[in-house]
Amino acid sequence: MRFWSLLGLGLLAASPAQAALDYAGLLTLAADGPIIASYQDFQSQTDALKQSVESFCAAPDAGGLEAARTAFHATTDSWQQVQWIGYGPVEAFHRGQRVQFWPDKKNAGDRQMLALLKDRKADAVDPNRVVFASVAIQGLPALEMLLFGDGQADKVLAGGDETALRCRLISGIAHNLNRIGGELVHEWAKPDGFTALLKNAGTGANPYADHRQAASQMFNALHGQLSAITEVKLAHPLGAAAAEARPGRSENWRSKRSARNIDINLESMRAVFAASFAPILAANGKSAAADRFLAALTEAQATLRKLPAPMEVAMTDPEGWKQLAGVKAKIKAAALILETDIANALDLQVGFNALDGD
């Protein structure tokens, strides 16, 4: 997804103040720990999704459809864990956009999928051809429409040619997601993969001048995710008041899991920060800054989890809207700690990203 990509990372020349900071250690802890584990989980969940879809399509019934929906949720959960990583292997071959083409400002995904259904062109996302299809119909949003969309989900159980058509589409997307999941794990973990690139920054034909530059990109990716949550996942659908809220602009409005996505985003960021950034800060006597950031994430999550209804429903009620606005404010507060306290402690700075509008 292009809006997750970070531009202008604000990488500075080395200075004496940063000499004691173990950027190489930070990168190793993140890449060998939560990052590769999360990508492996995504691969595993896409494999389970593929198998669930195959089982359903072999003998379509309501129970099988519910199992496929459950597998969709598990796959989306795992994707939300790595959504903050907008660089590296996920950028190559538009993998990120192919997994989740969102936000879809021109509604291209719905239009293209409805056209496929109308023209009976299920071969467009055949497992062997889906990589050549539009990115808007290759991934999770397209699958969500087929499994959860009003009037669409029922047709999966209609029987005959209708079920066969939709099963081909669902199966093609599931196979595509599984293929991408495998590619991401391979590209990170292979001997000369992206993990090795991070660890060996500044040597040979490496795009990173040093470990600090690589750490800066990771730091900016975390900050960019916080900005995307507040500006795209929350502010865009919330509008200025409950009366102006547009639930259909939410990330997963059909499956009513938009708040769940944000919670997983924050939890994933906590895991990465606690496993890699926090130890480096502690080693340099900066534990207090790390604690403030982690506490801010906890506070935002606690408020989010108190929503009385799914986010898509809550935002249309004045009290629910107010609560979501509070979540947005708390996430902004966490972002501020990251770009001030943490940035200063790590001798890094926040660069421009695609949300800045520059």
Automatic annotation (TrEMBL):
Query: Which compartments does it reside in?
Result: Cell envelope
Q: Chief location of this protein?
A: other
Is the keyword Signal assigned to this protein? yes
Q: Mind telling me which CDD domains this protein's record contains?
A: Imelysin-like_IPPA
Q: Where is the signal peptide?
A: 1-19
Transmembrane segments annotated in the record for this chain: none
Lineage, top-rank taxon, reads Bacteria
> Keyword annotations for this protein?
Signal
Imelysin-like domain residues = 35-327
Instruction: Supply the name of the protein.
Output: Imelysin family protein
Q: Which organism is it from?
A: Magnetospirillum sulfuroxidans
